[in-house]
Amino acid sequence: MTGTATPLTMDTIVSLCRRRGFVFPSSEIYGGLGATYDYGHYGVLTKNNIRSLWFRAMVQERDDIVALDSAIILNPRVWEASGHVAGFTDPLVDCRTCKLRFRADQLELASCGRKPSKRPGESDECDLTEPRQFNLMFETHVGALQDESSLAYLRPETAQGIFVNFKNVAQLARRKPPFGIAQVGKSFRNEITPGNFLFRLREFEQMEMEFFVPPAEADGWYRYWIETRRAWYLDLGLRDGNLRVREHSPEERSHYSSATSDLEYRYPIGWQELEGIANRGDYDLTQHSRHSGTKLEWVDPDGSRYTPHVIEPAVSIDRIMLAFLCDAYDEELVGERERVVLRLHPKIAPVKAAILPLVPRDEGMATRARALYEELRRHHVVEHDDSGQIGRRYRRQDEIGTPWAFTVDEQTLQDETVTVRDRDSLAQERLPLARVREWLDEALQRDWRSPKA
Ligand code: GAP
């Protein structure tokens, strides 16, 4: 029954997100702004679910990780010490003929401005400049003066806010290595080749965790975090065949990394990085110790000192959301009609259940449906929908991925039961009205596997 006949395209996901109010182009009435998006109601609810599931797994259910919320604008010396001022760059080339700008290391993925079937540089008309380095950090000024002395940056990653707080947290949170600090918040990059919807944004929400370990344990923890993060996605129903681990070659690694693996997802644009897990060694704490003059090291009770090594799982909510939406998207024929359905894990789904009076103008049905909705919404995000044909209401809920619908009908008036309809199997069963809340609580705790698997 399940399965899209044609391969999924990014346009299909973009159009669903727009149609159902998950995501809009940012400042659209002014023509938008490249690679920035605004999240609508269902987008916000989905992002909230992803963020809280991550926080639950990374902080709440562990003894060894604490939370932090550092500022977005930090002292600019942070970015000198971290290497971002000098090295957070992409190589750029300009074409003097078509006036377009390309990443020099990704020319094979780009299209010539005049002959889109050719790569930049392939046609005789192309006239490319020599590559030059372009820094991806957004600059701003702090205070009234706009000169070199007031220059500051919007953070391009949340990680540095964690490193510069290492001493505060190590002293005050009463943790000793191995321990981690987790942070969720906006990061900003002036990406040169944006596009592909939520995949590469100029403003995105990162979820990063820096895990500080004794140097001899670094490799073991690196492997541990690759497996732990992979399992998190699979537990939330992402299909195994669409997720893989790819280890970076030494040439590919960032300046700070001694080993990096990407968890890659098979997006409609091909296999791409969903999350990175890096062994950053002692690079960051050493750099900040040197530049700030504050020793960022661990002193054991016996007086021995060392600089902890860092293992970092880092991801953006935006890329996770895009992966879950792509994995969940399905079209199928039900009878004569086609339906679009998002087969999201119930914990990720923006709305957990819909409450539908079959005949809205029937007072008995309307009152019971409203009462059930008011009871359930105190515990879960649920929707009450009484407009339009029941089939159309089901389809609206299918498209936003609502796992269950409770329908109040004729029989409810006689025996105080409702129908529960399952989004994936379309199976229907009857439940006493009085048990619906308990049933939903239990259903949300059940294991869920994608029927597309
Ligand atoms: N602190 C390490 C760091 O920032 P990164 O590989 O540059 O490493 C980590 O980014 C994660 O942040 C990526 O795996 C991806 O999930 C997300 N990310 C990076 N750039 C992004 C962008 N322009 N748009 C959306 N997400 C992005």
Description:
This protein is an alpha+beta fold and 453 residues long. It has helices at residues 10-19, 41-60, 77-82, 84-87, 159-163, 166-172, 218-235, 283-292, 317-328, 363-376, 390-400, 410-415, 436-445; strands at 23-25, 37-39, 65-68, 89-94, 101-103, 132-135, 139-141, 151-153, 179-188, 203-213, 243-247, 259-267, 270-281, 298-299, 305-306, 309-316, 329-334, 337-342, 353-357, 382-384, 404-408, 417-422, 428-432. The strands form seven sheets. The protein has a seven-stranded mixed beta sheet. A five-stranded mixed beta sheet has the order 20-19-21-22-23, sandwiched between helices. Helix 10 (363-376) links the parallel strand 19 (353-357) and strand 20. Helix 2 (41-60) crosses helix 9. The longest helix is centred in the first third of the chain and has 20 residues, at 41-60. It is globular. 35% of the residues are buried. The model has no long low-confidence stretch (mean pLDDT 95). The protein binds glycyl-adenosine-5'-phosphate (GAP). Glycyl-adenosine-5'-phosphate binds at residues 157, 159, 189, 191, 200-201, 204, 206, 208, 273, 275-276, 312, 314-316, 318-319.
Oligomer: single chain
Question: Termini distance?
Answer: 12 Å
Total strand count, please? Answer: 23
Total of DSSP H or I helical runs spanning 4+ residues: 13
Runs in which pLDDT lies below 50 for 5 or more consecutive residues are none
Strand order of the largest sheet: 3-9-10-16-13-12-11
Bound molecules: glycyl-adenosine-5'-phosphate
Could you tell me the strand content as a percent range?
25-35%
- Overall pLDDT metric: 95
Biggest sheet record: 7 strands, mixed
Mass-distribution shape: globular
Helix content: 25-40%
Radius of gyration: 25 Å
- Structural class, by secondary structure, is alpha+beta
